[in-house]
Amino acid sequence: MKRTNILLALLLCSFFGAQGQSASFLNINPDVRSAGMGDGGVALGSNAFSLYLNPSATVFGDSKGAVAYSYLPWQRELTDGSNLHALSGYYRLGNKSGLLAGFRYFTHGDIVVTDGEGNTSGSFTPKEFSIDLGYAYRLCDRWSVSAVLHYISSDLGDFSGAKKGSAFAADLGAMYHAPSWNAGLSVTNLGSKIDYGYDSYELPASLKAGGAYWHTFSDRHRLTGHAELAYRLMPSDYSGVNVGLGAEYLYNDLIAVRGGYHIGDDKKTGPGYATLGCGLMYRGAEVNFAYWLAGSDSPVKGTFCLSAGWSF
After folding, report:
1. pLDDT of residue 307
2. CA 195 to CA 67: how far, in whole Å?
3. What's the CA gap between 78 and 88, in Å, rounded?
4. Beta partners for 122?
5. Which phi and psi angles does 116 have, rounded to 5°?
6. pTM here?
7. CATH of domain 2-311
8. What is the chain's Cα-based Rg?
C-alpha cells in the first residue's frame, strides 16, 4: 500500500492533469517577462532565460551576455511549499555563437505516507532539479539554431523501495530574425523516461512555434506583441494544444508593462488564465514581476513570479 501512496503522490505532483508523466516542473516557465505576456516566448528577443524559451535568440541580441534568478511559488492557493527556483544566463562568443547554462530546483509540499488502514507511517518532501547547458549558432544574417542538453533528477523519497529517478533530455530550436519581427520554433524535453524502481514515466515533451512583432513609435515608446502555439507531444494520452498571446509596452528602456492570455485544455494541457506583468530596467540591471489571473477553482489562481538580473 505504501508503494501505491508513492505512485499517487507522483500523480498529484504532476500538475495540470498530465498523468503518466514525471518531472512536471519542466512545464513551468521561469522567464518572468514572457510569463507576464501570456506564458509563451519562443519568438521573443534574447534575455537571461532564453535557455528555456529559444536559445537561438541570444545570437541576435544587443548584449554580450546576461544572468538572472527567478522565484515562482507554484499553485500556492492549493499547496504549501511548492516553489521553483531558476538561475540562468548566456554569454556570446563573437557574432556567431553563444553558450547558455542554467539550473532549476523545484520543491513540492510535504507528502504524508499512510498504510492500508489510513495510519500515518512517515512523510517526505519531493525534490527535483535540472542542470541545463545550451549552444546557439548563427547560420547567416537571419537564421540561427540551437541545442540544449538537460540532466534531470527527481527524488520522491525511498519508501517501499522507491528510487531516485534521473533522465537526460534535449531541446532543439531555430529562429528567423528580421528588422521588426521574429519567427521561432522549438521542440523541448525529448529524452529518456524516469524510472523510480516500480515504474517509468515520460517527460513532458512539446513542439512550439510562434512569432513576435515590435514597433518603435519614438526613442521612448516601443510596443511588442507575440503569439505562440504549443503542442504537447508526450505523454501521448495527454497530448493537446496551448496558445499564448501577449503584449509589452516599453517606455524609454526603463519601464515595461505587460499583459496576455494563455489558452489551455483543463483535462489535458492545463487551464486557461490571464497574466499581468511589469519590469524596471536601469543600466543593465532589471527586476520583473508577473501575476496569474484565474478563476477561484483554477489551480494557478494567485500564482506569481519575480526575477532579478543583469545584462552586459
Report:
1. 98
2. 33
3. 28
4. 113
5. -65, -20
6. 0.87
7. 2.40.160.60
8. 19
Residue type, 258: R
> Which class for 37: exposed (0-12), middle (13-18), buried (19 or more C-beta within 10 A)?
buried
Grid cell digits, residue 59? 545570437
CB-based contacts of 101: which residues, under 8 Å, 6+ apart?
51, 88, 89, 90, 132, 133, 134
Judge whether 50 and 67 are in contact, CB under 8 Å: no
Give the three cell numbers for residue 20.
503518466
Output 304 or 271, whichever has higher pLDDT: 304
Coil, helix or strand at residue 160: helix
300 band by pLDDT with thresholds 50, 70 and 90: confident
Nearest Cα neighbor of 82 from 103, 109, 112, 104 is 109
> Do the Cβ atoms of 62 and 50 come closer than 8 Å?
no
**Segment of 85-99, 116-130, 149-163 carrying the highest mean pLDDT:** 85-99
| Nearest C-alpha neighbor of 6 from the set 139, 117, 159, 165 | 159
Q: Percentage of residues in the chain with pLDDT exceeding 70?
A: 86
How large is the average pLDDT for residues 242-263? 97
Positive or negative torsion for Cα 101, 56, 211, 241: negative
- Judge whether 149 and 168 are in contact, CB under 8 Å: yes
**In b/e form, how buried is each residue of 9-35, taking b as 16+ CB within 10 angstroms?**
bbeebbbbbbeebbbbbbbbbbbbbbb
With bands split at pLDDT 50, 70 and 90, how would you rate the model's confidence at 19? very low
What residue type is 161 in one-letter code? G
User: What are the sequence ranges of the domains in the chain?
Assistant: 2-311
